[in-house]
Design a protein that fits this description.
about 280 residues, alpha/beta, Oxidized Rhodanese, domain 1, five-stranded parallel sheet, 10 strands, about 30% helix, about 10% strand, globular
């Protein structure tokens, strides 16, 4: 399973490499699980902080070069034999699921997301520390390509016209409809997309719903389309990974990630729909 419970983490704590994927470095600095390194969404999991970063080319959170991420994974002391758990405080959405997907795409199998996040860990009796994790760097992770499916804007342009394929948007229904857009300069959606909000993957307790419930939810959205003919996007390729994680929990594998997502698409001359007046 790509999820680990807080009680299992507590019982196996000493053998696991923890990565804190909360977006704000100040949150990590003020208190994190002992031994956890900070995986910064903008610096480690994307090129958002790179000089000259242009969201029109790859969206707000483009993937970093493979070699750079492989070197960073090694710097965290992770090799093919390392068991890794990623956590955040947002149900896995920002950005533990993105980190899980990137490690899996790098070729690392032994990685899970902490179900319920930091809140569940504290509820299980784990405590926070402000002490930085001790460095034990290794050589760059051995990887030669991203090993999970990716789609770019051209592929999305093609598949959205193909009735045998499906495009899924993981943003909130309001943003998908073109309402309350506060992150990107143009509201709306990619024409032909279906909407399955990432938050619907979670139950009232902030943990993932059962594999059976998730499977029903995603099979309904797929409408008979095979998972390997699906591409998922969101605003910038982060919460889309939450849906990919939920599909993995449900045993529905093979969907592609469109990393550029709406933040790239909306800045292009490509067709858009569902537009209303932007709040920006």
């Amino acid at each position: 399973m790509p999820l680990i419970s807080a009680s299992d983490l507590r019982d196996r704590f000493a053998s696991i490499r923890l990565l804190d994927a909360r977006q704000d470095p100040a949150d990590y600095a003020s208190g994190h699980l002992p031994g956890a390194f900070h995986a910064d969404l903008n610096r480690h999991l994307s090129t958002a902080c790179d000089p000259g970063h242009d969201p029109a080319q790859g969206g707000r959170h483009p993937l970093p070069p493979l070699a750079r991420f492989a070197a960073q994974v090694g710097a965290w002391g992770i090799g093919p034999d390392t068991e890794v758990v990623a956590y955040d405080a947002a149900g896995g959405s920002n950005a533990a699921a993105r980190l899980w997907w990137m490690l899996r795409a790098l070729g690392h199998e032994r990685v899970a997301v902490l179900d319920g996040g930091l809140q569940a860990a504290l509820g299980a009796g784990l405590v926070l520390t402000a002490e930085p994790a001790a460095l034990a760097p290794r050589s760059p992770y051995p990887a030669d390509r991203w090993r999970l499916p990716l789609a770019d804007a051209e592929a999305v342009e093609t598949l959205r016209h193909d009735p045998s394929r499906r495009l899924m948007d993981a943003r909130s229904p309001e943003r998908w409809r073109g309402e309350n857009e506060t992150l990107d300069p143009v509201p709306g959606r990619i024409p032909g997309s279906v909407n399955l909000y990432w938050a619907d993957n979670l139950g009232p307790d902030g943990r993932f719903r059962s594999p059976e419930a998730l499977r029903v939810q995603y099979e309904a959205a797929l409408g008979g389309v095979s998972p390997d003919r699906l591409a998922i996007h969101c605003g910038s390729g982060v919460t889309a990974c939450h849906n990919l994680l939920a599909m993995e929990v449900a045993g529905l594998r093979g969907a592609a990630l469109y990393v550029g997502s709406w933040s790239e698409w909306c800045r292009s001359p490509r067709e858009k729909s569902g537009l209303t007046k932007s709040t920006k």
